[in-house]
Design goal:
It is a single chain. With 498 residues, this protein is an alpha/beta fold. It has a domain of 248 residues: Rossmann fold, CATH 3.40.50.1100. Helix content is 46%, strand content 15%. It is built from 22 helices and 15 strands. Helix 12 links the parallel strand 9 and strand 10. The two termini are 39 Å apart. Bound molecules: pyridoxal-5'-phosphate. Pyridoxal-5'-phosphate (PLP) binds next to helix 12. The site of pyridoxal-5'-phosphate (PLP) has 17 residues, from helix 12.
Length: 498
């Protein structure tokens, strides 16, 4: 399987190379040249398989330049060995006709683990394939969750190092502790004395500095990023849609071939795009419902065909969806139009004017498959409370946005009888303050650990290991720097070969 750029002006390559490069040379995103097909028999055959075995089946269709043994090794290092707190890795939790696909049983309690556990393994396996001798240094600027998930994924992975910059006063105490206690011989965490934008601009300017890249190269190091447009982050996400279908078959909820709907809480459009891939590969999916928060640029786009980032930015109780540019949408546009020229034009409009509008035909194709709506913070909290009362099940805020929008979809489509699966992207413990407020608990003056205990009292669910152990974990990183010193800090870490 070859990969091409959504903007059509870069050379095609194998998946290993696409994963090492991240972004195509013309600024586009790598896409597979075709959708491999999975028959209903193949899907049925997944029923008795473990999550890891299901993953190898799907991955081997796309990553044809990896051997099956290599993929099995990658998958077992990513999802095996006690990193997940459930044997089923991505279980479907069904309460009557309320089905929740839980993607937060990994080490950092959020769905980013599903991809960031596997990407480092795919990358490390790709390096010798492509004759890369240098060490790869992953740089991340984080406002919280991605940094920790990337650290967990890259810790002690061969031929890689990872350095994470976070704004000193810009992350929660739990998020900070999660990062500062990170173990691994190849990891470094640094507080930037500034805000998230300072940290992010610092990392961007390092990536853009050709002279600096040359200096690093002389030290035997090349830079890379782990962001969500990398093909190696998208492909692991296709697996859990197939896995969810197999689980529903196993439970007798559906019969082979019966269609299901998914509602996905969406930010960068990566998670829901993976569902689109699954559908194109033959998984019986009817509607994909795109759920947004008050930053509802995608709701507008999927309804009108106009993408306009020139709007007010809201800070919500679903911070992982506070996004105005959904980068992975570019891949959908490419697959729908099959025209790199059109996509390049729209992306050019977006960067020059802040908006673009797709043609009627493209919009109609998109609308046949996608439906979109959004939920305010107030209705998201009400949804957490309502679902708790009805099912005795506590959802995180992001999941609740999806649940609320799924309700709206159901109201508008009484004729759709397909089972709806809500995609759940974080453990409620990860956003415990907002969740407890939604449940009407009095949390005045509580610290983060008291909040964990309080939520445990209410929900009865175990506190995730990774969060519980923070109470006693040793702080291993104490570095900090000014934003203007970041380059220097990177060089120090790059040339430290202990
Ligand atoms: C990243 C994230 C999302 C959004 O996923 P995208 O792939 O960016 O659309 C939703 N919820 C949580 C908890 C996340 O961490």
């Amino acid at each position: 399987m070859k990969y091409s750029s959504t903007r059509g002006k870069a050379e095609n390559c194998d998946s290993a190379e696409a994963i090492i490069k991240g972004l195509a040379a013309d600024g586009g995103l790598f896409v597979p040249e075709e959708f491999p097909q999975v028959s209903l028999q193949d899907v049925e055959a997944m029923v008795p398989l473990s999550y890891e075995e299901r993953a190898v089946k799907i991955l081997s269709l796309f990553l044809t330049d990896y051997t099956e043994e290599e993929l099995a090794g990658c998958v077992s290092r990513a999802y095996g060995s006690g990193k997940f707190d459930t044997k089923r890795r991505a279980p479907v939790n069904s309460m009557g006709d309320f089905h929740v696909l839980e993607l937060w049983h990994g080490p950092t309690s959020a769905f980013k683990d599903m991809a960031l556990q596997l990407l480092p393994q795919l990358l490390s396996t790709a390096l010798p394939k492509c004759g890369v001798k240098e060490q790869v240094l992953i740089l991340v600027a984080t406002s919280g969750d991605t940094g920790k998930a990337a650290l967990e994924g890259f810790a002690d992975v061969d031929q890689t190092k990872i350095m994470v910059f976070y704004p000193q006063d810009g992350v929660s105490r739990i998020q900070q502790l999660q990062m500062l206690t990170q173990q691994g011989s190849n990891v470094r965490v640094v507080a930037v004395r500034g805000n998230f934008d300072d940290a992010q601009s610092g990392v961007k300017s390092i990536f853009g500095d050709k002279d600096f890249a040359k200096e690093l190269f002389d030290e035997g190091v090349r830079l890379s990023s782990a962001n969500s447009i990398n093909w190696g982050r998208l492909v692991p996400q296709i697996v859990y849609y197939f896995s969810a279908y197999a689980d529903l078959l196993a439970a007798g909820t559906i019969k082979t071939g019966e269609k299901i709907d998914f509602t996905v809480p969406t930010g960068n459009f990566g998670d829901i795009l993976a569902a689109y891939y699954a559908k194109r590969m033959g998984l019986p999916v009817h509607k994909l419902v795109c759920a947004s928060n008050a930053n509802n640029v995608l709701t507008e786009f999927l309804r009108t065909g106009i993408y306009d980032r020139k709007r007010e930015f809201f800070k919500t109780i679903t911070p992982s969806m506070d996004i105005l540019i959904s980068s992975n949408l570019e891949r959908l546009l490419y697959h729908v139009t099959e025209s790199a020229e059109k996509v390049a034009g729209w992306m050019n409009d977006l960067s020059e004017t802040g908006s673009y509008e797709v043609d009627k035909e493209t919009l109609n194709t998109i609308k046949q498959l996608f439906w979109a709506d959004w939920a305010s913070d107030t209705s998201t909290k009400a949804e957490i409370d309502a679902v708790y009362r009805k099912h005795n099940y506590v959802m995180d805020t992001h999941t609740a946005v999806a649940a609320k929008v799924a309700d709206k979809y159901a109201e508008a489509h009484a004729d759709d009888e397909c089972p709806m699966v809500i995609v759940s992207t974080a453990s409620p413990y990860k956003f415990n303050g907002s969740v407890l407020e939604a449940l009407g608990a009095d949390i005045e003056g509580m610290d983060e650990f008291q909040l964990l205990d309080k939520l445990h009292e209410l929900s009865g669910q175990d506190i995730p290991k990774g969060l519980a152990k923070l109470r006693k974990a040793e702080v291993l990183h104490n570095g900090s720097c000014e934003a203007r010193e970041m380059k220097h800090t990177v060089m120090e870490f790059a040339s430290d070969n202990r």
